[in-house]
Amino acid sequence: MASERHAPAEKTCEIISDYSVAEVRMMKYLEANAALCGIQESLMEQLKSAHEKTAVMLRRVCKKANRREVPGQINDFGDPAFVPRGF
Question: For the segment 23-82, what is each residue's pLDDT rounded down to a tens digit?
Fold first, then answer.
């Protein structure tokens, strides 16, 4: 698992995104073949509920992955680009 190997947020976002896509594909297949496969409605509701949880996790992780690191204050003026000369 990504959490066990401490994967960076970007990689975790990618993994969860791929998983989410697979969930949607599985739900579409089961909806199309529910009668043929004997899929119960309760199973479809469980899958949809699980996918909603995946979507929440995906938003949280990808938000963290897309957050840019703000550089800390480097000088007294707070602007890392401003370096006083003559000191």
Answer: 999 999 988 988 888 888 899 899 999 999 999 999 999 988 787 544 444 445 555 455
Residue 87 lies in a domain: no
Q: What number of H helices and E strands is found in the chain?
A: 3, 0
Structural domain boundaries, residue 37: 9-64
With beta carbons less than 8 A apart as the criterion, state whether 17 and 58 touch.
yes
**How many Cβ atoms sit within 10 Å of the Cβ of residue 61?**
20
The answer to whether 6 and 62 are in contact (CB under 8 A) is no
Residues in the chain: 87
The total of structural domains in the chain comes to 1
One-letter amino acid of 36:
L
CA neighbours closer than 13 Å in the CB half-sphere of residue 71? 7
